[in-house]
Amino acid sequence: MRSDAIKKGIERAGHRALLHAVGVTRADMDKPFIGIVNSYSEIVPGHMHLDAIAQAVKEGVYQGGGIPFEVNTIAICDGI
């Protein structure tokens, strides 16, 4: 699986240490990692609901046997 690129091999020991530090278990390492990109922001009214949607997506990833990782991105309207 693609996420093995950051999980497998001696050269990835540092990656695994950081992943363990954020709560990823040894059993989780055998599951696919799925990135969830979210532009949720408290200052953009049209994005206030995106945190709830991202949480639902993460629950779906867990139910499907994956490990979700949420990262944020700016919105096109983040000019404030």
- Domain count: the total is 2
Supply the helix-strand structural class. alpha+beta
Low-pLDDT segments, ≥5 res? none
Helical fraction equals: 25-40%
Residue fraction in strands = 15-25%
Biggest sheet: strands side by side, in what order? 1-2
C-alpha end-to-end distance: 40 Å
Q: So what's the overall shape?
A: elongated
Annotate the secondary structure layout.
Layout: H1 13-21, E1 33-38, H2 50-63, E2 67-72
Parallel strand pairs: 1-2
Describe the model.
The chain is α+β, with helices and mostly antiparallel strands and 80 residues long. The chain has helices at residues 13-21, 50-63; strands at 33-38, 67-72. It folds into two domains: 1-30, no CATH class; 32-80, no CATH class. The protein is built from two helices and two strands; from the N terminus they run αβαβ. Strand 1 (33-38), helix 2 (50-63) and strand 2 (67-72) form a beta-alpha-beta unit. The chain is elongated, with a radius of gyration of 15 Å.
List keywords for this structure.
80 residues; 15% strand; alpha+beta; 2 domains; two-stranded parallel ribbon; elongated; 29% helix
Sum this structure up briefly.
The protein is α+β, with helices and mostly antiparallel strands and 80 residues long.
